[in-house]
Request: fold
Amino acid sequence: MNKTVNYIQDKWEKGFLPGIDCIVFEDGKIIIANTYKTIDYNTLENKQYWFPLCDTTIESLENYSDDIWTKVDIFNGSITHGNEKIVFGDGSMGNEGFVASTDRDNQLKWAIFFTFSNPILKAEIVNNELICISELETKISIHLNNVTRISISENY
Reply:
């Protein structure tokens, strides 16, 4: 393992993820996400969006701030997907949630952090899509063949 992989794994084992809307991979690659909400004033329906914005690395993020890490807690165990476990929970602030894929030895494969979801309370896999439900009943759908494909439904 290289230095970055060891660093990411050490942070994960201590219960930390980058506390920004992003996907972090075991090799230190980060995909920063843009997230925003719109409202249809005719129907008063809110719509949440999450999409990849750019690629970076953990080293690059820490060049600008070494305080990017947020404590995370895993809720309600895990679910199995092939040779991986999917775990989920919350961040340090009440508005944060995350989902992560690990191997059977709890080595991080990828994690997605959300600053808007509140804690992720449950998850299930349906047709190779990871469906996460937050405390606010926000439904976050993640395509497991391409984890950058994420859709969000509020109060599903």
In short: Helices lie at 3-13, 58-64.
